[in-house]
Specification:
heterodimer, A: 287 residues, mainly alpha, MetI-like fold, two-stranded antiparallel sheet, B: alpha/beta, 11 strands
């Protein structure tokens, strides 16, 4: 009887280990497939012709994605400029000023914001933000600005919740000490709490960037997807993710490989961003 | 608690097992071949679905399965024999020509603008100018001083390939032109943006956009039949080798008077008179 129980324990442990490892397996498989499909083209046409190439006409043999790399970073920065201050204000309010009641309402509603499917954001962008920009500022409306606004709203929950967590880890003694020295609450927040949580806040920005650069559906709907690097916030642009989603349906041969190559570049960028974010979070723990 | 956990694990294992088996046994399950599968051009798909609906009313014993994926994907699927019939809205290229083509009807490509736009006629040369990036302002077409918001389809689309072949000649579409991935989203932009211009399948036209005359000819079914409107492409059904009996019956139905009448009602141009 006791023996049987032990066997069962062992079996369950192994089974759970197996399931847990499956996530690793999926990660590995995704990597393997993207590399398998995308890498050959790098050798065929040359890395510089892809990464630094300006012309994208895959059915005619041009695979340059440089404008898309630049555009991806432009929308990401735009989203950060518009979204990060709001998110940081929200996190600061939640951790330093909000009473228990407000917190119980505000926190779940932020999580709800994170749960809205991106196609809904895109749809609202097309219906309201794009025409608004077209009428107020000119241009087609489908633009860097529209995309940045939509992405800025989409990264609010990510930045807010991670910044909030890092503000909460600042020991209460810091605040008490500052207040005891006669500092006002704002002085305490601005001079003591925010600097103490600095690395966590920076990490939240980086993770927000990761979210923005990887977003696809909403971006396709509001970016206009023109291939040129936008020279003003009112011009359309195409990001790496939307390039893949836009053309995958019809792509064959080298065109298809080129889309996987786009995926490799995107993967590398997101990996770098995550590494940076991890580095900052670790430094916080160490310091 | 423990039994609950064990049950959960057993259940998920069972689910994984069953789905895997399902995947493995899938293809052999319909060995009876009383079905026709189609895949390909998203321009042809909605019409194939209408035809399939009607065909299945007359032949309840045959199932017709229509999928999208795009012209290139449809051609590929037909070459691999993954589907019985491939649908294409562009001509075959190179080694794709081993497939047997059946033209089921013709489709015009209409140049569309917002109903608020006063322009009624455009020349092929002006279209080429707009899409190559030389003409950027509506003033150059005799309207107000405002930039043109031109929209094209994505690289690889059958509609885009036909547009490039019929209107762009040897010029490239400029990289400043906006890109959308379906007839529907091109129409949506043009319908909402008074300064927009785009091109969509004639079958997709409705009141929300206005079709321009090209070189003085209105894009109408009659004008396509009279061969005065030239921006026209064939809708193709592709088969590899001898098609199965149900597939042949489906194609025969489409080419019949009834099938062609359905296509005419949808705004397409039948193959004969």
């Amino acid at each position: 009887m006791a023996n049987g129980r032990i066997n069962k324990e062992v079996a369950i442990k192994w089974l759970l280990t197996l399931f847990a490892l499956s996530s690793l397996l999926f990660l590995f498989l995704i990597f393997a497939f993207i590399l398998l499909e995308g890498l050959p083209l790098f050798f065929k046409v040359g890395t510089s012709n892809i990464i630094a190439g300006f012309r994208w006409a895959p059915t005619k043999g041009f695979f340059g994605i440089f404008p898309m790399i630049v555009s991806s970073f432009m929308v990401t920065l735009g989203a950060l400029v518009l979204g990060a201050p709001l998110a940081l204000a929200c996190a600061t309010y939640l951790s330093e000023y909000a009473g228990r009641r407000t917190k119980t309402i505000l926190k779940p509603s932020l999580e709800l914001l994170a749960g809205i499917p991106s196609v809904v954001y895109g749809f609202l962008g097309v219906i309201y933000i794009v025409p608004l920009i077209r009428e107020c500022f000119g241009g087609p409306g489908f633009s860097l600005l529209a995309t940045s606004v939509v992405l800025g709203i989409m990264i609010l929950p990510t930045i807010t919740s991670i910044s909030f967590d890092s503000l909460m880890t600042v020991p209460a003694a810091y605040r008490e000490g500052s207040l005891a020295m006669g500092a006002t609450q704002w002085q305490t927040v601005y001079r003591v709490v925010l600097p103490a949580a600095r690395s966590g806040i920076l990490a939240s920005f980086i993770l927000g960037m990761g979210r923005a650069i990887g977003e696809t559906m909403a971006v396709i709907m509001v970016a206009g997807n023109a291939l040129k690097i936008p020279l003003s916030p009112l011009e359309p642009l195409r990001t790496l993710t939307s390039n893949i989603a836009l053309e995958l349906a019809y792509a064959t041969g080298d065109h298809r490989s080129a889309l996987f190559s786009t995926g490799i570049v995107l993967l590398v960028i997101i990996m770098i961003l995550n590494l940076i974010a991890n580095f900052w979070v670790k430094r916080k723990v160490a310091g | 608690m423990r039994t609950f956990l064990i049950r959960c694990i057993a259940l998920s294992a069972l689910v994984i097992f069953c789905t895997t088996c399902g995947f493995l046994s899938g293809p052999s399950a319909d060995g009876g071949k009383r079905s026709v599968s189609l895949a390909g051009s998203t321009s042809v798909m909605p019409f194939s679905e209408k035809l399939a609906e009607r065909f299945m009313l007359d032949h309840p014993e045959i199932g017709v399965d229509v999928q999208g994926g795009g012209s290139s994907a449809g051609i590929q699927a037909c070459l691999n024999k993954t589907v019985d019939i491939g649908m294409s809205s562009r001509e075959l290229k190179g080694d794709e020509k081993v497939l047997t083509e059946t033209t089921i009807c013709y489709d015009g490509i209409s140049i569309v603008v917002s109903p608020k736009n006063p322009i009624r006629n455009i020349t092929a040369k002006q279209i080429r100018g707009i899409y190559s990036g030389r003409i950027r302002n509506w003033k150059e077409l005799g309207w107000i001083d405002r930039e043109i918001d031109a929209v094209t389809r994505e690289e690889g689309s059958g509609t885009r390939a036909a547009f490039e072949e019929l209107l762009m000649k040897n010029e490239n579409i400029s990289d400043r032109i906006m890109v959308q991935d379906s007839n529907g989203s091109v129409k949506e932009i043009v319908a909402t943006d008074p300064y927009g211009i785009g091109y969509i399948s004639l079958g997709m036209l409705d009141q929300r956009v206005r079709a321009l005359s090209v070189d003085g000819t209105v894009p109408l079914v009659e004008n396509i039949k009279k061969k005065t409107y030239h921006v026209v492409r064939p809708f193709l059904y592709l088969t590899l080798g001898e098609p199965s009996r149900p597939a042949r019956m489906f194609i025969e139905f489409i080419l019949s008077r009834d099938g062609q009448a359905i296509l005419r009602k949808e705004g397409l141009v039948p193959i004969h008179g």
